[in-house]
Every structure is written in structure tokens, then in C-alpha cells.
Amino acid sequence: MKLLEYEAKEIFSKYGIPVPKGVLIRAPEEVTAHLPRIGDAVVLKAQVDVGGRGKAGGVLMAEDATAVETARELFSREIKGVPVRSILVEERLAIAHEYYVSIAVDRSSRQPVVLFADAGGVEIENAAMADESAVRRVVVSPLLRDIPPFLMRELLGGAPKELAPTINSLYHAFQEKDAMLAEINPLVTTPQGVYAADAKLIIDDNALARQGIAVNRDLSEREREAEKHGFSYVELDGSIGVIGNGAGLTMSTLDLIEYYRGQAANFLDVGGGADQERVMHAVRLVASMPGVNVIVVNLLGGITRCDEVARGIIAAGVAPTVIVRMAGTNEEEGRQLLAEHGYRMLESMDAAVRAAMEVAA
Ligand code: GDP
Ligand code: MN
Fold first, then answer.
1. Above 90 in pLDDT, residue 216?
2. Of 40, 79, 243, 245, which residue is the least packed, with the fewest Cβ within 10 Å?
3. pTM of this prediction?
């Protein structure tokens, strides 16, 4: 989950990273009350989940006399199509130099990798593309609490040593918050010291519960239903419903539908050991999606018994055509039950998907 700048800055600040004085506002008039504390020269920053806000008109400078008007202007804008609902008002820093620092998980070495560039700010991509050596890179053992001094020296090169504590604090935040990315661009030097002028933090979705972060997403009624039954469920745009057991088998089914130029309506993994009851709920759930006129049920019988699955499908008794591909435990009983109730059970996943394509067309 990607946090907004002000949320990331709150967290960074707890780790000792200096951030500019600021406040979050949701209406232009709110800015006035905060200016005495923040200062006369401010920066207004749209809190939208898009990159490159500066270039897209999402970062505006203002003075005390123009702050309300500028805030009103920013609230009226869309930044790359995203409406501005809140603005971070910050003291304007007297920036001497902009650096770039980020920490991410390096997939190949499976360790944190720290990137640093002397030329940060909005032009970093261009600079990095023009000159790869402009970005320095070190890999840090995840067993270490701190970035070791020799790696920090390599990272900074000729950049001021006063940046080191902030980069090390960023590393602590990255580790403890289960981050996938922690970035400060620009990390700036000013006459008052070092500051994180911007902040980006992406937390691993698998760690949200451990981090005590509520996923602030409004679930649809079907998504709530899926959560209740413990299904892994994602809604897509197509018309072919999909039910599988195991994420791999379910994804393969989606892949095959895509291969035949079809469009899946959803991903639903019933999980291991699904009984009649669970299968029935899964089939009813997918059948309730608007526009779904066919459902592919692709299951491997193991602990899950094919006859139980068949009973679940029959008990669901839904309108969309249900096409089944099952193999494994009690396959024969399952096939018989389905046949008796007029359901088609096909030998291969390929045949099942092609049959579903015909119904969907
Ligand atoms: P982004 O475009 O979404 O990455 O937004 P940033 O927060 O990085 O802001 C974009 C640019 O605005 C920065 O690279 C700075 O050059 C500039 N900027 C941001 N805050 C300040 C500030 O306090 N003072 C000054 N002088 N410039 C700022
Ligand atoms: Mn930035």
C-alpha cells in the first residue's frame, strides 16, 4: 500500500528524519489559522497518489497574502486526473541542494538496496538515464540494524556527510515498517540543516495487519461476502466467472481464458479442503456478479472431494451455465452427480475454458 506524502512524513519524522513544519488542510480557508506557526512563505502540496506532482501542477508556492487563493486554485485542479481532496501546507525551505535517496528490496539478491544520487528532484529520471553513474547503489544485509559506515561512504561519494544520519534513519523506517520502498526525493540541504522535502513509502500489503494499518478501501457487498467465507476474491471486468482451488490453478484458468481472448469476471480461490457448503457459497457469489452468464469451476480433488464439489454446485442452483473440470478424489462420483443434474464436466481445463467461451460469446 502506497502512503500519501503527509502519512509517510509522519512516519519518517518518528524515525528522526527532519521534515518541514506543516499541516494537512481539507479546505482553502483552513490555511490561515496555521500560517503563524508555519511561516509566511509556504509550499502547497496536493496529497494525491500520483508521481511527478510538481511537473503536473500539484506543488505551488505561496506567501501569507496569497495562501488562501493559491489553496483554492490547487483544490480546483486535477493532478493527472486525480481530484485534490487534501493539501499539505509546509514551510518553504531555502534549498541549497537536492539529493535523491531510496531504499527498496532488490529481488535478485533478496536484500535491501539503497540508491543515492547527487542530482535529486524532479529531473532525477532524466539525469539517471543520461548518466547511469549518477546513481550510486549499495546492497545492505537485512541482518544489520544500520547501514555500515563503509557502505555509507561509498553511497555518499562526495556528498555531505551530514546526510548520513537521515539516510540511516530511512533505513530503520524501511526495515521496521516492512516497506517495499522508502524514498526521499528531494532530500535537501538548507542553511537550517537537512530535510526530507518529499516522502514516499510503500508498505508490503502482506504486512498491513502486522503494521496495524487498516486497508482503507470500501469493500463491495460481494467482497465482504468473500472475506466472510475466507475466499481470495478479486473482481475483474469480463463476463466469465472463475472458481478454482489454489491460487496457481485459479490464475492458470484466468491465463487460459486470456489466451483464448476471453475476459474473466473475477478470480476466486476457494482455498484448500472446500466442502459442499463453501463451494455452494462460491458459486452463488460469482453468479451474483452482473453480466456473468457462465462460470468455469476448475478444481483439483485432494482433500477437497469431487463429489462434495458436485453437491455444492448442484445446491447452488444458479442461473449461469456452470462448466466443471475436476480431477482427483472421488472424481467418478462427482461426474455422475453432475451428469444427473445436467451439468457438463470436461476432461481438461482447455476444453472447459473453450466451452465457456462459446457460452460467453
Ligand atoms: P513531486 O513532484 O511529486 O515529487 O513533489 P515534490 O514534493 O518532490 O516537489 C517537487 C519539487 O518542488 C521539488 O523537487 C522541489 O524542487 C520543489 N519544492 C518542494 N518543496 C519545496 C520547498 O520547500 N522549497 C523550495 N524552494 N522548493 C520546494
Ligand atoms: Mn518528489
1. no
2. 40
3. 0.69
